[in-house]
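From the methods appendix. Each design record in this collection lists the tokenized structure first, followed by the designed amino acid sequence. Records were kept in a plain field format so they could be parsed without special tools. The example shown here is representative of the layout used throughout.

RECORD:
FOLD TOKENS (244 positions):
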């Protein structure tokens, strides 16, 4: 029997969806492939989910591509991911004209290789006036690192007299984060059966709904993505209050 098509409420598409794309390594291991092959398949899935997000009218998509902790992996795996990133940036620079997608990076870019930083700048520049999906790629990103960097900048501004310590509010604090100006995610998806947030968007996920999928990221499909949105649309969000 054909599977029924998922009918989404077009007026209740999450404005911002965050994704932990987990399971590339296990996907490769199951096939006796090297880790890089898993990440390559993961990058292909990212492309499909990005296109689905554009089609559905999602305004912000934030994906965890490389964490501050991922440097601990073998040199071979790290350089494999960085090569895929180079390829991803090159291809996206080429296709930017035909895709209404604005790309930017969150995280500490200075530890990335110079040529990668240059390509990022180029892609951010050529997509900066796009009005469709805002794709935020988290690279050398850690939630705690982001918060510490924000606290340091706030402390500097307090010492310089640019702000007064009594002016520090949640919204001022948010404006010092890498995600300045980006609304908090309504929905966070993590694949591969793991149910934790692993230092991702620690501040921003305070009220997000979570969707955990047992599928490994390379196997995650646009239908799974739509199902996660359908589940979100059928949840009761109370933000600490009561709806009845
Ligand atoms: C987690 O799977 C995934 C990563 C650490 C890297 C994510 C990278 C990509 C999806 C591709 C590259 C991205 C771009 C933007 C080009 P894992 O390796 O931790 O999986 P495992 O837990 O099964 O080992």
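DESIGN:
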């Amino acid at each position: 029997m054909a599977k029924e098509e998922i009918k989404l409420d077009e007026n209740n598409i999450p404005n911002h969806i965050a994704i932990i794309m987990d399971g590339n390594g296990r996907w490769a291991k199951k096939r006796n492939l090297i880790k890089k092959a898993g990440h390559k398949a993961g990058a292909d899935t990212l492309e499909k989910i990005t296109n689905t997000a554009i089609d559905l009218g999602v305004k912000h998509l934030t994906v965890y591509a490389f964490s501050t902790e991922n440097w601990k992996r073998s040199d071979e795996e790290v350089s494999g991911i960085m090569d895929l990133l180079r390829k991803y940036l090159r291809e996206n620079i080429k296709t930017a004209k035909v895709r209404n997608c604005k790309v930017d990076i969150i995280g500490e870019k200075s530890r990335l290789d110079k040529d990668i930083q240059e390509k990022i700048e180029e892609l951010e520049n050529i997509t900066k006036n796009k009005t469709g999906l805002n794709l935020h790629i988290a690279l050398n990103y850690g939630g705690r690192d982001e918060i510490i960097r924000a606290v340091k900048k706030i402390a500097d501004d307090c010492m310089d007299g640019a702000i007064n310590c009594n002016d520090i509010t949640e919204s001022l604090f948010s404006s010092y984060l890498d995600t300045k100006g980006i609304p908090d995610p309504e929905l966070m998806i993590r694949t591969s059966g793991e149910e934790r947030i692993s230092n991702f968007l620690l501040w921003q996920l305070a009220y997000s709904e979570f969707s955990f999928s047992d599928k490994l990221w390379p196997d995650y499909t646009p239908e799974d993505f739509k199902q996660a949105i359908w589940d979100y649309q059928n949840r009761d969000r109370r933000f600490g209050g009561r709806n009845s």
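APPENDIX NOTE: The chain has one domain: 15-142+184-233.
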